[in-house]
Amino acid sequence: MAMRLQLVEGLELLEEWAESASQAERNVVYEALFAIGDGSAFLIYDIFGDPRDRSNLIVSVRPQLVLKVLVRRADSSFEIRHVGAPDDGQDHTDGDVAPAREEPSSPEGA
């Protein structure tokens, strides 16, 4: 069963990016955010660990369009850290970054 996550931070960043994005770009990013929220993103998108900050995940939405998010498993939430072109100029699908693995969640209280 996938973990449901609630978006708790980063809406201002998303709104700022959306002002200059095309409607098609906004649509695919919003779709990816819903997939992150309902837990299906690992089945749909290529997801990589951020080499600069291991707590972030990079979701490859389209070529040259990524979402960087921080997942907080403790409170079942996530925050947007970056949206747009890869901020380091690298192609995150070139094999230099290992794909992120979804960790099994432990039962409550364990």
Automatic annotation (TrEMBL):
Q: Which spans does this entry mark as compositional bias, Basic and acidic residues? A: 81-104
* InterPro entries, sorted: DUF6235
The protein's matches in Pfam families, at most eight in alphabetical order, are given as:
DUF6235
The domain of life is: Bacteria
Looking at the record, which segments are called Disordered?
81-110
Q: What is this protein called?
A: DUF6235 family protein
Organism lineage reads as: Bacteria, Bacillati, Actinomycetota, Actinomycetes, Pseudonocardiales
